[in-house]
Model the fold of this input.
Amino acid sequence: GDSVTQMEGPVTLSEEAFLTINCTYTATGYPSLFWYVQYPGEGLQLLLKATKADDKGSNKGFEATYRKETTSFHLEKGSVQVSDSAVYFCALRGNFNKFYFGSGTKLNVKP
Amino acid sequence: GAVVSQHPSWVICKSGTSVKIECRSLDFQATTMFWYRQFPKQSLMLMATSNEGSKATYEQGVEKDKFLINHASLTLSTLTVTSAHPEDSSFYICSASGPNYSYEQYFGPGTRLTVT
Done:
């Protein structure tokens, strides 16, 4: 079945450091891929998405490229800020519009 | 656009009572709504998919008689936790997709349920 695996956290970085959160997926067909962010006590917010192979999603300085050959969708940001501290979820949209989420990676950014 | 609200944002109830959680799409019509459950420090687990005017489709292992879902209109879905027990305490999140946003899911802010 469809599934998403992402690196365990927490990830602790200093402000302005480079961020990578790994995400790989298993799916039948051609899923769309997403990154969501969840701030404490809140619901999920869409961060970025890619709908086909080699697409790059980007938003607020975050980027992720849909790599079909490695079944990956790693999240990157060149310079993180304290305000980026949150939990990040990788997800895929499979058949029947069902979403499958990774386990989430908590990011702590220290000033 | 594409705002989804949930009410209440948090609720405390006694064991054995029932609790209803509302999910509304505020500025679009949602043909399909999804209900998720999130345990502390864990990912979202899809509980059920509801389509307006029809019965919800529950994921394997989810008790449909305990978690009653109603999607009576294109802007409202409700989740009722019946005869709640402490193990039902969790964060419940709904999401909605609609004809204009059929490839997106927009998430509500979640409802924290605590059963004492």
